[in-house]
Amino acid sequence: MHRLTLIPGDGIGPEISNAVTKIIKAAGVEIDWDIQPAGADVAETEGSPLPERVIASIKKNKVALKAPVTTPIGKGFRSVNVALRKELDLYANIRPCKNIKGIKTPFENVDLIVFRENTEDLYAGIERQIDENSAESIKIITRSASERIFEYAFQYAVKNNRKTLHAVTKANICKLTDGLFLECGRNVAKKYPQIEFKEILVDNLCMQLVQHPSVFDVLVLPNLYGDIVSDLTAGLIGGLGVAQGANIGTDCAVFEPVHGSAPDIKGQNKANPTALLLCAINMLRYIGEKEKAQRIENALMKVLETGKCITADLGGNATTTEFTDEVIKNL
Ligand code: ATP
After folding, report:
1. What b/e sequence results for 164-185 when a residue is b if at least 16 CB atoms lie within 10 Å of its CB, and e otherwise?
2. CATH code, domain carrying 178
């Protein structure tokens, strides 16, 4: 029996968490979920959207599955997602992006992986109102954080037979900050001559990704560009409903999809649980449940490939519940 933390999130979070835990249970994986709510509702009752109990639970269990938690735009509390990554020092945000059979997209042979530095950059949240008409935000880039994300990405590339790694920056404009990030990439690259190291500016990358994404392999980006580019790459393979992610630190790992809480479809039984399910599959492999992870993945891929019972974001008309039951049927 594994004891793992589950953050059900808000918006579509509880619906997709329900779907995923149901599928995992049906596959026979024994998990004792330590359920830890977080977000706006929790802020009202407990005074903080990310109470200490959530952090303590993940520190104890080491592994968490996390559905999205809404971040208020403009005003309100700091992002729970960002705070969690910072508190647990989950420095590597890994977002694989590979075509899925049965999901029609304009591109074939997309198989790339985004490594997003997860702890600093403009997401450090150091912002200040200067006066009524101006505000500033500080972009922090450090050698230690930059080196460790490159180190992680290069090690991954070697282990997984990847060929090329692009360092993505805007170092021509942000000469000191992105310049330092790039310098760290160049330095770490020297230790991995078997991987071809390339440099690209983020604007040029965006253009090339929507023209010929199959040439890209491993991308390493500072936090902000990584966030934006990984939504773009999600679009290349069928959208946010199928884009998985993981946040890895030295001690803990939190598996969470790329997408947000999708308040526009909340409570309508319309959400696609695929992204969270792919995160869970990755998590099961991480905790050693390789055979059951494969079983769930096979069932999921069969449902997506058949295309008869898929959710609206993928062009189908199945509800979250129908899709979930179909995956279970195919286990
Ligand atoms: P955040 O800033 O919190 O990452 P976001 O602005 O990227 O959030 P999302 O909440 O991810 O926004 O939603 C973007 C769009 O994608 C919305 O129209 C939403 O309905 C859709 N979407 C996101 N996730 C899913 C999903 N799992 N199933 C179906 N549609 C989804």
Report:
1. ebbbbbbbeebeebbbbbbbbb
2. 3.40.718.10
